[in-house]
Write a structure and sequence with these properties.
Elements lengths: L1 H17 L9 H32 L16 H29 L3 H27 L10 H23 L4 H23 L1 H8 L27 H6 L4 H9 L16 H19 L7 H11 L1 H18 L1 H13 L8 H48 L2 H6 L2 H17 L6 H20 L2 H46 L1 H6 L3 H51 L5 H42 L10 E3 L6 E10 L10 E9 L3 E6 L5 H9 L4 E9 L2 E4 L8 E2 H6 L6 H10 L3 H6 L7 E2 L8 H14 L4 E5 L7 H15 L4 E5 L11 E6 L2 E6 L1 H7 L2 H21 L1 H12 L5 H12 L2 H4 L19 H10 L5 H26 L12 H46 L3 H6 L2 H43 L3 H46 L1 H6 L3 H50 L16 H12 L1 H28 L25 E9 L6 E10 L4 E6 L5 H8 L7 E6 L2 E2 L5 H5 L2 E4 L8 E2 H5 L7 H10 L3 H6 L7 E2 L8 H15 L3 E5 L7 H14 L4 E5 L4 H4 L3 E6 L2 E6 L1 H6 L4 H18 L5
Parallel strand pairs: 1-5, 4-10, 4-11, 6-9, 9-10, 15-22, 15-23, 18-21, 21-22
Antiparallel strand pairs: 2-3, 2-5, 7-8, 11-12, 13-14, 13-16, 16-17, 19-20, 23-24
Helix pairs in contact: 2-4, 2-5, 3-4, 3-6, 5-6, 9-38, 10-11, 10-14, 12-14, 12-17, 13-14, 13-21, 13-41, 14-16, 14-40, 16-18, 16-21, 16-38, 17-18, 17-21, 18-20, 18-21, 18-37, 20-21, 20-35, 21-34, 21-41, 33-35, 34-35, 34-37, 34-41, 35-37, 37-38, 37-41, 37-42, 38-40, 38-42, 40-41, 40-42, 46-48
């Protein structure tokens, strides 16, 4: 063969000489010399250029204002990568030629060729360094002339060499490199000579100002390159390069991540999903019924393209993965000298290489497509769940708490999206088992039946494990739902828990729920450990069974067939392992689908309950005819009975009645919120609704007021003025751009209510429904709101308003008096007065309150005399007020750095610190189990390699060779090694889950303790969605995923080391390729990981807004529906869902981008080792030389391990990246284990007396308070004393600091200066629980918890049933509770939704009656009750708290008139502080004006009788 090639080359040579070509020019040696010369010259020139530029740079270092622009060359990165690639390629050629010729001898030609490759390494390495250091930001318009000239010369030499080598050369090692060099030279010429014009044109587009970007990154304004990528880019994931490049240069933000393609966005997928779901439901005749099967069909239809494509890739992958095991025996025989045809070795290498290439490509696209389909399915599901939450009836909402509904979105929808990974496993297992049996039958004949039986046994063993996992998973989810429900409720009501000193009791409840959850978690993870054990042991078990059966059947075992079988078993390992996971995942997904289907099947609000009349078509605004309504549609007893109402356009209708009479329910029935049992409702035009409990969105004040409408400045300013918001906005640091915290946490109750009213006014609706909005504001503001809003801006509108304030009734055209769910009386004010009865009860109570004012005035002198001894120095409060003003100066002088209370969620930047990993692995048992786990895995790996090594060595290569050992010894040793490895893997599996479980438990307890001990400012500034996200998603990751992920990374490292060790025994030269390949892999990982890390973090931060928006929507669904804003909120939800999907989609693509490149690099290693093996002469691999190391069987063993090299090499980096992505959950939880804590709950060294406070005197001294360092002072130097056993009333305009004073008393906020003493004890010196447990409060927002009546009154279980009944009777709720079936144990739904707001307030009264504290605070406690009930509460307090210090904040003047002292606050300062009598004596006092205004407004109802 060589002779023929030589003769062919000589004939060509002669023909060229015949035509006059110089013979020396055709000599390859001459070409190598020329190449050496040029490369040496280039190296010296580059070195000189570098020195020259370095010198020039040093000379110009003082020129700091250089006009050089930061311009990068066109195709800079490909040029740099190609240069580095050529340097590495030349280095490999250099090593190969050196080692090859070292064995075969040297010659002049070989030495020159080796020198040529060496100089190429130096030259291209120098070019790479020069490009990276000198030209990256040089400002040059084009590449230097030296480089462009060299690229031209290099291309010419390469072309010339290639032509000569093809015709004259006789060895591939010459012309193959020249092909590579020619292609590279062509690319360099393209870059250097053709692209320069484009580069120069782009210079004109650069920004004119140095250092200033022409525009900000607009990644989020462009669609992902995936949408328009070409086939090559799609196949190689090159469309991800721009984003990964940006992430490498800077920390990625959401703005850098491109928008999804319309087919992947929720706007593209949801309509398809909804249409399919509705079409299936419509065919069944019930559009509201959603079954699991319907849901599955709709989801499949939504992502059918991805499902079909991924199925195709799975099929290709399965077929390609078995090519290697099929050809192993042939390769072993080839290495042993059996050659069937010429170049068989190269054909085998090509077959191995192509099969692995196809396998890698198919796997990458399979993984990407299933994730893409999963994201589509998840987005469509989340959107559907959100839309369902908007339309749920109140009865349906009570059956599922908000925490449970959020879990549908955060857990169940996520799991269904993740099911794509397991979707194809059931049929893939069948195909792979079938292919495996074919290969086994080819090699081992009927012994394949034994392998099949063993495989079936292993799979059957996994079935009970899978069913156990399913059961435990379901129980785990149920217990998690309960925990999340409790956590959500606690976070929502954390303020009241801290005020009542209940937070640790509620923490113990959550820990108890977690204990139940942890019990199921423990069972689940240990079952998973057993499944893992089966996975790792199954190949050994199947192989022992198969080989044993072969020996019994007399089938000869040869090393090639053994190795083929072992390779097959290794591939079978994956489907066997995945089967229980698949069964478990199918079960989990079935549970999630069932849960979501049942939720989607819940009853919606009745769509046709209201007949909407077109605007202007009728005079009727609201009409109800024979209406009967109940919250429970199945109830036989309606809550609202026989309602007949007709309201004409422009009428003002007032609704009044006692607590629980059905006022709010009447408005709900008009809105269509309350199910209609019978009757008709008509509504003309658009509507607006103001709820009794303010619903405020997180966001700017302006956004809350506009509520989707466009800004009209004049109208907007008029609304602000009418709602008394102008002054409030002036005080706020950012005005109407101030960001409101969750549930309006950084606003007072009055401010929230006025913003809610402003929102309604700005909508310019036809019909307005107000549910007692004036109770949350002070008397002056209430009058202003009524006059400016209802009597002013809404003068021509139809208004229905519920009110407890009788003074607002005379202005109504119609008054409805509610009693026991009926309209007991209806008419104008004077008509109802004449009728008497129910209406007179309300008016009579109001008149009693008014007479109190006269009584106070009459007894002013006596009161002042009695109080003179108490007042002491406080008589000159006005003077002190002036002095106080002088001391404090202007507000602006005190305001610190301005900032929003709600900040962006904290996101760690840069790489995950090693401390995070260290804290995680050392949390459980100080990390003592970690080395034991690693040792067990190492032992397993050594034993596994040893057992395979044993089988390869102890079996003959062919039938003619004698076996080294007997058959019994062969199988006994193999079984012994298998049992030992099984014990190692059992120990590893159990210890790993033990460490993971313990770590998860410890981190959970630590995080929750820190959260519950965090100051209230943390909850004010942190939306609950952020906390819930950590308690739910991140905790689940730590419970289930992170131990496996960390373990997998360590185990794959150990496996990779084992493979390299085996391969290096046969061909240590593999390190020549392996080391640079690993270096490139590490570089790629370092290039990729910054983007992947930040994308993973963005996943976490983008999920919380989805949860928060959903939670807000559920709580404010009635308001949203009343404004007909469902579509706007759905659009906002879709935008948030897409914002969450964007980083997830690009995370998946980035992972496949990396794995694709890692696979290609590992293929190079594998191909190199194969080429090396087949290139060795026959007999080189021979047992005679070294029976322990160099023999054909071990060479085959190296190949079967090499088949997994690409998988493991990629898996190491993949696991590293996944681990870093997952460990972010640990990082986020560790953030919350380091929260600043409140002061100690108990200070043992300074505990107050058991009877403290005995007197109840509260002394404030120069009290200054602000909510955060960057916010202004709210209280600006208060000094006064609340006398023990006396009643002190606190009044003032909304936002004057009344509630802040109370929060400071309870140390919810600590003062920045000054102090508070109770009975001479500085409250800052004692523990928080010692303080708060001795004080009582009825808060502004009445709170009830999910549970029973008893657990709401006595959460700490300190009182008997008799005491609780006594307290219920005192607060007028005894009869109401006795009517309920469960009495004290009757159910209370989430937030107390099945109780009216007034009744909830009475429950809060019952709590303080049980507690009987010496200091009682009423923070607008009677705002939500009618005047008659208010009087009853006041009488109850007077009767049972005669010796207590009672501090009352009230908007009703009558609630503070019988106080011993009145404190009037204004802008955080004491405006007045004296007895009510003295203040009323001075008609110029602010308090006297407030009382006069209240009296005037109230008396106007009687004065206007004649007019009406």
């Amino acid at each position: 063969m060589e002779f023929a090639n030589t003769m062919k080359g000589m004939s060509v040579f002669k023909s060229l000489r015949y035509v006059g070509v110089d013979e020396s020019l055709l000599n390859p040696i001459f070409l190598r010399v020329i190449s050496c010369s040029f490369h040496l010259g280039l190296f010296l020139v580059i070195l000189g250029l570098w020195v020259w530029k370095k010198t020039r740079k040093d000379n110009d270092v003082g020129n700091k204002h250089s006009t050089r622009r930061n311009v990068r060359f066109m195709y800079y990165k490909p040029t740099l990568f190609c240069s580095i690639g050529l340097a590495i390629f030349s280095f490999l050629l250099c090593l190969l030629t050196h080692f090859y010729w070292y064995r075969t001898g040297w010659s002049d030609e070989k030495i020159i060729t080796l020198s040529d490759f060496t100089l190429k390494v130096l030259a291209w390495l120098s070019i790479s360094v020069f490009l990276n250091t000198q030209l990256i930001n040089s400002g040059e318009k084009k590449y230097p002339f030296v480089l462009r000239a060299w690229w031209g010369i290099f291309f010419s030499i390469s072309c010339y060499s290639l032509v000569i080598d093809l015709f004259y050369g006789k060895k591939t090692q010459f012309w193959v490199p020249d092909v590579v060099f020619t292609i590279m030279g062509l690319f360099f010429c393209f870059v250097g000579f053709i692209v320069k014009k484009e580069s120069e044109e782009n210079m004109l587009e650069e920004p004119l100002l140095n250092g200033i970007d022409s525009k900000k990154s607009t990644g989020d304004q462009t669609v992902t390159p995936y949408a328009n990528a070409n086939i090559f880019s799609l196949f190689t994931f090159s469309w991800m390069c721009p984003l990964i490049s940006v992430g490498y240069k800077k920390i990625l933000d959401l703005e850098d991540v491109p928008q999804l393609d319309v087919n992947d966005s929720v706007r593209g997928t949801f309509p398809i999903f909804r249409e399919k779901l509705e079409s299936v439901g419509g065919a069944r005749g019930d559009c509201n019924l959603v079954t699991t099967l319907m849901l599955v069909k709709a989801l499949i239809f939504t992502a059918w393209k991805e499902i079909v494509l991924s199925a195709f890739f799975v099929l290709i992958y399965s077929l390609a993965s078995f090519v290697g095991p099929y050809l192993i025996d042939t390769l072993v025989q080839y290495l042993n000298g059996k050659r069937d045809f010429d170049n068989e070795g190269y054909v085998l290498v090509a077959a191995f290489f192509v099969a692995k290439l196809v396998e890698c490509l198919a796997q990458r696209h399979w993984f990407f497509k299933v994730q893409q389909g999963g994201y589509r399915a998840r987005a469509a599901l989340v959107a559907k769940i959100y839309n369902k939450g908007l339309t749920l009836s109140c009865q349906s909402k009570q059956s599922h708490t908000s925490g449970e509904i959020i879990n549908f979105m955060t857990v169940d929808a996520e799991r269904i999206g993740d099911f794509g990974w397991y979707m194809h496993d059931p049929w893939m297992v069948i195909i792979e088992v079938g292919l495996a049996l074919v290969i086994l039958y080819k090699n081992l004949g009927l012994a394949a039946i034994a392998a099949f039986v063993a495989t079936i046994l292993v799979m059957l063993l996994n079935i009970p494990l899978g069913s156990l996992q399913e059961k435990f998973q379901e129980k785990l989810m149920e217990s998690k739902d309960k925990r999340m429900k409790a956590t959500s409720e606690v976070l929502r009501n954390m303020r009241i828990l801290k005020l009542q000193a209940w937070e640790m009791k509620f923490l113990s409840r959550i820990l108890d729920l977690r204990s139940t959850e942890a019990g199921w978690l423990k069972k689940y993870v240990y079952t998973s450990a057993m499944t893992t054990f089966v996975f790792w042991v199954s190949p050994t078990f199947i192989s022992v069974t198969t080989f044993g059966a072969a020996m019994l059947m007399g089938i000869p075992l040869e090393s090639g067939k053994i190795l083929s079988a072992l390779a097959t078993f290794r591939i079978l390992q994956e489907p066997i392992y995945s089967l229980p996971d698949t069964i478990s995942m199918i079960a989990q997904t079935k549970v999630s689908l069932d849960r979501i289907a049942s939720f989607l099947s819940l009853d919606d609000l009745q769509p046709d309950v209201i007949e909407k009349l077109p605007k202007g078509s009728s005079d009727i605004a609201v009409e109800i005819v024979d209406g009967n309504f109940a919250w429970d549609p199945s109830s036989s007893t309606p809550l609202l009975k026989d309602v007949n109402l007709k309201v004409l356009n422009g009428m003002r209708v007032a609704v009044c009645g006692t607590v629980g009479s059905g006022k709010s329910s009447l408005l709900s029935s008009i809105l269509g919120e309350m199910p209609k049992l019978s009757g008709n409702i008509k509504l003309g035009g658009t509507k607006a609704y103001v709820a009794q409990s303010p619903w405020i969105q997180s966001g700017k004040i302006e956004e809350n007021i506009l509520f989707g409408k466009e800004m009209q400045r004049e109208k907007y300013d008029n609304v602000l003025e009418a709602c008394s918001l102008t002054k409030d906005l002036e005080i706020l640091s950012f005005g109407d751009q101030t960001v409101i915290g969750e549930r309006g946490i950084n606003l007072s109750g009055g401010q929230k209510q006025r913003i809610q009213i402003a929102r309604a006014l700005y909508q310019d609706a036809d019909v307005y429904l107000f549910d007692d909005p004036f109770s949350a504001v002070d008397a002056h503001t209430g009058t202003h709101l009524f006059n400016e809003c209802i009597m002013g801006l809404l003068n021509s509108k139809t208004v229905l308003y519920v009110t407890h304030q009788v003074e607002f009734l005379p202005a109504a055209d119609l008054i409805l008096v509610m009693k026991d769910g009926k309209i007991s009386q209806a008419g104008k004010y004077n008509d109802l007065l004449k009728l008497g009865s129910d209406f007179m009860e309300l008016v009579g109570a109001h008149q009693d309150a008014l007479t109190t004012i006269d009584t106070v005035k009459g007894e002013a002198l006596r009161k002042s005399e009695e109080s003179s001894g108490m007042i002491g120095d406080n008589t000159n409060v006005q003077d002190k007020k002036v002095a106080s003003d002088g001391q404090n100066g202007k507000v602006d002088d005190i305001v610190g750095p301005k900032g929003q209370i709600v900040q962006e969620e904290e996101r760690e930047k840069g790489s995950v610190g090693i401390s995070v990993y260290w804290k995680y692995i050392t949390t459980a048992y100080g990390g003592a189990l970690v080395p034991v786990v690693l040792l067990a895995q190492t032992g397993f790996q050594i034993l596994q390699i040893g057992s395979n090594y044993w089988m390869a060595w102890a079996t003959p290569v062919s039938k003619s060779d004698p076996p080294p050992v007997g058959s019994s010894v062969l199988i006994i040793v193999y079984v012994a090694l298998g049992i030992a490895s099984a014990l190692c893997i059992f120990a590893r599996s159990m210890l790993l889950v033990t460490a993971g479980y313990k770590t998860a438990s410890l981190l959970f307890h630590k995080m929750h303790l820190c959260i519950f001990r965090a100051p209230m400012s943390f909850f004010d500034a942190t939306p609950s969605g952020r906390i819930l996200n950590r308690a739910s998603t991140d905790q689940s990751a730590i419970d289930l995923n992170i131990p496996v992920q960390v373990g997998s990374f360590a185990f794959t490292i150990i496996q990779l080391i084992g493979i390299i060790a085996v391969m290096s025994q046969v061909a240590w030269q593999v390190f020549i390729v392996f080391i640079p390949v690993i270096a490139i892999c590490v570089w790629l990982e370092q290039y990729y990981i910054p983007s992947a890390r930040e994308l993973a973090r963005l996943n976490g931060t983008c999920k919380a807004p989805v949860i928060q928006h959903f939670a807000e929507t559920i709580s404010g669904s009635s308001t949203i529906r009343s404004f007909d804003q469902e579509s706007r909120f759905q659009d906002a939800s879709m935008k948030l869902i897409d914002n969450y999907s964007r980083p997830k989609f690009h995370t998946a693509a980035a992972m496949e981008w990396l794995c694709m490149r890692l696979d290609m690099l590992s293929l190079i290693t594998f191909a190199f080792s194969l080429i090396f093996l087949i290139s060795l002469p026959v007999g080189t691999i021979d047992p005679i030389f070294s029976p322990c190391f160099y023999f054909t069987g071990v060479a085959g063993l190296a190949v079967i391990y090499g088949l997994n090299l690409n998988v493991l090499q990629a898996r190491v980096v993949w696991n590293l990246c996944m681990m870093e992505n997952r460990i972010i959950s640990v990082e986020r939880i560790l953030q919350y284990t380091a929260l600043p804590s409140e002061p100690p709950l108990i200070i043992e060294s300074n505990r107050p007396d058991p009877n403290w406070p005995s007197c109840g005197e509260v002394d404030f001294s120069n009290l200054q308070v602000r909510y955060a360092p960057h916010m202004p002072l709210v209280l600006r130097g208060l000094t006064c004393t609340f006398f023990g056993g006396k009643k002190t009333g606190i009044v003032g305009r909304t936002g004057s600091g009344k509630s802040t004073l109370i929060q400071t008393l309870f140390r919810i906020v600590d003062p920045v200066a000054g102090q508070i003493k109770i009975d001479g004890t500085n409250i800052s010196s004692i523990g928080l629980h010692d303080l708060r447990s001795r004080l009582s409060i009825i808060p502004q927002d009445p709170t009830m918890f999910d549970g029973t009546v008893r657990s709401n009154l006595d959460p700490l279980e300190e009182h008997s049933d008799e005491q609780i009944w006594e307290a219920l009777d005192k607060c007028q709720l005894g009869d109401e509770v006795r009517k309920k079936d469960g009495k004290l144990y009757s159910a209370v739904s989430e937030n107390g939704e099945n109780w009216s707001v007034g009744q909830r307030q009475l429950v809060c009264l019952g709590r303080v009656l049980l507690k009987k504290s010496k200091v009682l605070v009423l923070d607008e406690a009677t705002a939500s009750v009618d005047t008659a009930t208010d009087n009853l509460i006041q009488q109850t307090l007077r009767l049972h708290f005669t010796d207590s210090t009672v501090i009352t904040i009230a908007h009703r003047i009558t609630s503070v008139l019988d106080s011993d002292m009145v404190l009037l606050l204004e802008h955080g300062l004491i405006a007045e502080y004296d007895t009510p009598g003295r203040l009323l004596e001075n008609e110029s006092s602010l308090f006297a004006k407030l009382v006069a205004e209240y009296s005037m407004r109230s008396n106007s109802s009687f004065e206007n009788l004649s007019d009406t």
